[in-house]
Amino acid sequence: MSAIIIDGKKISEDIKREIKLETEKLKVERGITPGLAFILVGENPASQSYVKMKGKGCDEMGFYSITEKLPVDISEEKVLQLINQFNHDPKIHGILVQLPLPIHINEEKIIAAIDYRKDVDGFHPINLGRLMIGLPCFKPCTPAGIQELLLRSGNDPAGKHVVVVGRSNIVGKPIANILLQKQIGANAIVTIAHTGTKDISIFTKQADILIAAIGKAESITGDMVKRGAVIIDVGINKVEDISAKSGYRIVGDVNFESAFKIASAITPVPGGVGPMTIAMVLKNTFLGARNIIYS
């Protein structure tokens, strides 16, 4: 038995094509161009790369976007002032503050300052609260992308036992909340395992759908997986590889080679969940421009 590869690149491109078509209609019918503002503090190479990719995505969709690059020693108050400016800018429908922030800036305070109706990352306490009780909201982008991957690959989670390995506020907790809702595209039985679990394999072996988001390179192996399970690997880890030009290679939280032989479907790393996150940022921005969620 060999697993089907769930191609996040292809699925994300499908979603972006849909958004582009809808954006063109929105411009013609209502004269609205979706607008996304990026705030980048400091010169973290990974953050710069992420913002560049998201900005490129905006260009491809025909969005308006602006990137504010701020020095690493900027005051928290200056960042809050900029957020307030974008909160009141009618051309801006989404605000994205790239994390992590320098240690002198309180991330929770920054996130809470964003108008929740422009919080396209889905991290604002109001959006997370609405998510938990099943009300319409901006869903955090990586979990929303996971849900799309499952549905568009023919793996509806309804009635399935989903085991989430990881409890972060960015992935683990929100995807658990998304999939347990009594809604179309969800309605699953959800278990969360994490670093405090004595034997994670007890739970991973029960999973019809296994979502690995624990941040440990290749820590879930094939012998920990139920035969025929669907595996969504959220992990992005660098491991040393002297044969690679860079000196390292990127792997997930799942040992792909061993799990591939057991699973019915699996996401690769890279090329699985990663591209979906950017697609969902763009989708949330479009929804903000349409004023669908909070109308």
Describe the structure.
The longest helix has 23 residues, at 8-30. The protein is built from ten helices and eleven strands. Strand 9 (237-240) and strand 10 form a beta hairpin. It has a six-stranded parallel β-sheet. The chain has helices at 8-30, 45-61, 76-87, 107-113, 125-133, 141-152, 172-180, 201-204, 256-260, 273-290, and strands at 4-5, 35-41, 64-70, 94-97, 161-165, 189-193, 209-212, 230-233, 237-240, 248-251, 265-266. The chain has two domains: 31-115, Leucine Dehydrogenase, chain A, domain 1 (Rossmann fold, 3-Layer(aba) Sandwich); 141-274, NAD(P)-binding Rossmann-like Domain (Rossmann fold, 3-Layer(aba) Sandwich), CATH 3.40.50. It is an alpha/beta fold and 295 residues long. The protein is 39% helix and 16% strand. The chain is globular, with a radius of gyration of 19 Å.
- Could you tell me the strand content as a percent range? 15-25%
Total individual domains: 2
Rg, alpha carbons: 19 Å
Count of β-strands: 11
Quote the CATH topology of the largest domain: Rossmann fold
CATH class category of the largest domain:
Alpha Beta
Structural class: alpha/beta
Question: Which shape, going by the Cα principal axes?
Answer: globular
Q: What CATH architecture of the largest domain would you give? A: 3-Layer(aba) Sandwich
Mean pLDDT: 96
Low-confidence stretches: none
Give me the side-by-side strand order of the main sheet: 1-11-8-7-5-6
Tell me the span between the first and last alpha carbons: 48 Å
Number of helices: 10
How would you characterize the largest beta sheet? 6 strands, parallel
Helix content: 25-40%
Order of helices and strands: EHEHEHEHHHEHEHEEEEHEH
CATH fourth-tier homologous superfamily of the largest domain: NAD(P)-binding Rossmann-like Domain
